[in-house]
Amino acid sequence: MAAPECRPDDAQHQKASRPADATVNMDPEKQPADAANLYSIFTPWQKRGIVLGASVAAFFSPLTAQIYLPASTLISEDLGVSDTQINLTITTFMVFQGLAPMFIGSLADNGGRRPAYVVCFLIYLTANVGLALAPNYDALLGLRCLQSAGSSSTVALCYAVVADVITSAERGQYMAFTVVPTVFGPAIGPLVGGLLSQHLGWRAIFWFLAIFSGVAMVIFVFFFPETCRRIVGDGSVTPPPSHRSVWQAVRLRRRKELGSKDPMAEAAPDHASSATGQNKIRFRTVFGSLFLLFEKETGVLLWTSSVVYMGYYCIGTAIPSLFAERYDYDGIEVGLMYIPLAVGSVAAATIVGPLFNRNFKRHCIKRGIPYHQGQQQDLSNMPIEQARMEIGVPLLCLTGGGLISWGWAMHAESHVAVPCALSFVLGVGLIGYNNTTNILLADVHPGRAGTATAANNLARCLVGAGASAAIVPLIDAIGVGPAFTLVGSLYFVAIIPALILVKCGMKWRAESKGTDERGKLGKAKGLESGGEQVSDDEKTGQ
């Protein structure tokens, strides 16, 4: 069962496409006058709970990548392999981290969020149990790939869930908080991994992840609702049984037993019968993320974002060796050096997030576009790229300057407070611009946020893998100061495509929309002509 697709950039389309027998699950006396135009029927606290749950699930990807690192030496000794072979498990993890969301994100946009989450958790849980019991290196390598596939897709799903329930007017602040787990994972992962491997052995790391993910999966199965707008519209349409949480299934069954006239429950069978034709999985659906990389607007945005996020990988990779060599820090002390970066990401959520919302409102008022946080505005005639990049471009300058300063502070071996303070600034800039990209992707690709985020993840991982491999040799060759001057200068170069996006983005969106509409029209005509041909053939046969 699926509701007709509700496109977030067209509130009127959403209203018109809602099934006639689907009712808003609210007390009629408490409904606002314009409830039919609401983007989502979830209350503010329900939205916060949904976003929090999705963010917790997204926490597994960065946590899993980092918690493994402190135990690498112990694992190589226990399994009798070289450090190079252990490093291969890290490389393959990053490769699958980029590839897996390309499939899961696209399928989740068509088949629903809950099934995708359950699949991810089952894969991840199974991989962790297998890793905890891994008898040899081959098993470790294969299961690390499986572990990466299960955990990395939750990041794309997180942003897709936010796009499902949050409007463009309030998306800035909500989207900002979803990035916090991405930074806290690297901050606490090495600490937890070091403590577990030191006191309980390296296998305890994977038992910990298995238990943690098992608890999270149970909570998701029992309480997390389906949010995909292809399935439930604005949340008012009852999903099919396979997409219902246990809590929702029990509630509907109890109402049925009590004889309650629940319009939603009565409407469910009709909606279920219409799902089959709407959520077919096609080649372009599965590989939708790859196609997005070569679209004009999305391609410019994603490749610019990947270059910018490269700085995050460079900092994360360089911190262990630089602080160990220059400040004689041990593993736990090095792990603490990630905390200023994490605190900066929280500051980005609390400071930069509201700025996006405020600037969006300003542009709506300036252009006479009706503004309401609970309703989705029509963005077809709004320069949304300008509204987002007016915040994003200053963040590029802040981050570029911060990277150069951080590099020279480490080069001069200044007091540890200096690189820590600069790490905080980098957290604000890096995560703030990352939010710019994610918010704009959700604005430009309504209904396909999972696919768009997966494309962003793929581009970032490809560039990040190269940056992680190159930064330490680059530092050894030219020094830490010149190396980060080179990296930081790329941020100022990235301002050029960002400004091109501001100038041409709206025109590219219109062209893309026109192409899509012509494609749908051509497909419809093809079906009609095919039907006429069948009729002619039947007549000839008679």
Automatic annotation (TrEMBL):
It is a multi-pass membrane protein. It is found in: Membrane. One of its GO terms (molecular function) is transmembrane transporter activity. SUPFAM superfamilies: MFS general substrate transporter (SSF103473). Residues 50-506 form the Major facilitator superfamily (MFS) profile domain. InterPro entries: MFS, MFS_dom, MFS_trans_sf. The keyword Transmembrane helix applies. Residues 1-28, 511-542 are annotated as: Disordered. One of its GO terms (cellular component) is plasma membrane. Residues 1-13, 511-520 have a biased composition (Basic and acidic residues). The chain crosses the membrane at residues 49-68, 88-108, 115-135, 141-162, 174-192, 204-224, 300-323, 335-357, 391-410, 416-436, 457-475, 481-502. This is Major facilitator superfamily (MFS) profile domain-containing protein.
